Amino acid sequence: MAATSDKIMNRTQDGFVHHASSGLKSGLNTTATITSSTVVANTHFDVIIIGAGFTGLMAARELSLQNRKVLLVEARDRIGGRTFTTEFENEKYEMGGTWIHWSQPHVWTEVTRYGLSIVESKGATADRLSLLFDNGSRLKIASMSDLFTEVCEVMNKYSNVDGVQGRTIFPLPHDPFAAKEINQTYDKLSMQDRLDQISSTLSKEMYEFMDAYLSMNSQCRLSESGFIDHIRWWALGDYETFRLFDKTSRYKISEGTTALAQAIFNDCHNVQLLLSTPVVSVSRKDDNNITICTQNGQLYSGRTTIITIPLNTLYKTEFIPPLKSEKQRVINERQCRGGSKFAVKLEEPIGKWCGYAPYPNPITIAFTDDEDGSIIIGFGMEDLIDIQDLNAVKLELNKFLPDIKIKYIIGHDWRSDPLAGGTWGWYRPGQVTSNLLTLQENEPPLFFASSDTANGWRGFIDGALESGLTVVRHVEHYLNEQTE
Ligand SMILES: Cc1cc2nc3c(=O)[nH]c(=O)nc-3n(C[C@H](O)[C@H](O)[C@H](O)COP(=O)(O)OP(=O)(O)OC[C@H]3O[C@@H](n4cnc5c(N)ncnc54)[C@H](O)[C@@H]3O)c2cc1C
Description:
484 residues, alpha+beta, FAD/NAD(P)-binding domain, Polyamine Oxidase, Chain A, domain 2, 2 domains, eight-stranded mixed β-sheet, 13 helices, globular, binds flavin-adenine dinucleotide
């Protein structure tokens, strides 16, 4: 391995912190910034991997275990992609992907492999709820124990589109094509369509609660979010409300996601890493020869390439010759763009707390994350709030919690990030059945992988690791066939 992760905190260009008492600071400290390798001129790699998020890191480690000569090229000044851990004023913050679960098979294997541990986000199970109804004009304070039965009933009703809790749609949650014909019917629906179908049976408050929860999941207005992705989450959550909540937003890696990214990277052998190196084009010369061109005009060549660029920004990469027209069409379509995530440090702790508000409230869900409740994690909808504006965020949080005072806000605007184009993956109506298979298709010697196109936990860290593993199987098969 030519570059090592030595756990030194450096400032990355990503993220910001805005202290109430001082100005805006961009660039947060993280150990995800690693020294780049010096690549020897004219090296011909077995595989060039574009992107050092969890998909790219997994692929790099697995290929290096097969003794492949690998170049990992990353546009950012750090590894980890849509995840990174930062430390500020003695607190650890996750700026992107955070929560994992033991039932997520790929990520849990890595937790075991590297001896990592998990810690609970306390507010994820808060009993004290603030619910903002009627376009943000009415605040209701409730307890989850009061709402528990009703929330479960409504979630069951919403998901029970086929009379058996979605089981005919995703009978095998890690195989999105196990019931392809049935999927086609339900894939036409948006999340809003489904809410409309059951709305006459819901109280106005439960309708608004569902709107808040569902639009938080897709990070997009419900009319643009595919219903079938809700059923996929539901199936992965064992068709049960609180198991789904636990799996998606309760437990995080104690050591931080960056610790996992570093552990995978440190296990790579014979992998050269180039950071701060955006790739602008990929040229196929023949079946065994590709060249990538970086923004500063450097060329690197290899036998194959794995492209792990997020779906919402992949359209910017030039392919020479062009990809198959159907592939390029689905790339150009992209997916829901997501919103933003932030953390605020409070002057006074508030204990375990959670707030919900329906779209178009700029914050749909916020909850306390730490033991005493002095840190709130919030999710901004689409571009309805500028999370760098401490006063704007305070104004919105005060609708839920009128008395809180904020010390600082810390976050990263993934929606405007040119290398991410959003947060986690959620497809629009019709895209699962019409686009996913095409997105997964490889055009050897070009191979594609991303959490955004995974089969199971698509849009999660687990999906990235799944996709990284899958693509390595295809690349290995191809390389072995070529040499026979
Ligand atoms: C705010 C937020 C919250 C989330 N919450 C959770 C959660 O709680 N749990 C969970 O499991 N998941 C969560 N996710 C999703 C999860 O983080 C992602 O699905 C996963 O990390 C994506 O991994 P990836 O490797 O496929 O893509 P990425 O991490 O995006 O990696 C792709 C890499 O490619 C690089 N790249 C892009 N273009 C180029 C180029 N032209 N040249 C070179 N490099 C390029 C990017 O910089 C990036 O590093 C969250 C994501 C966000 C943003």
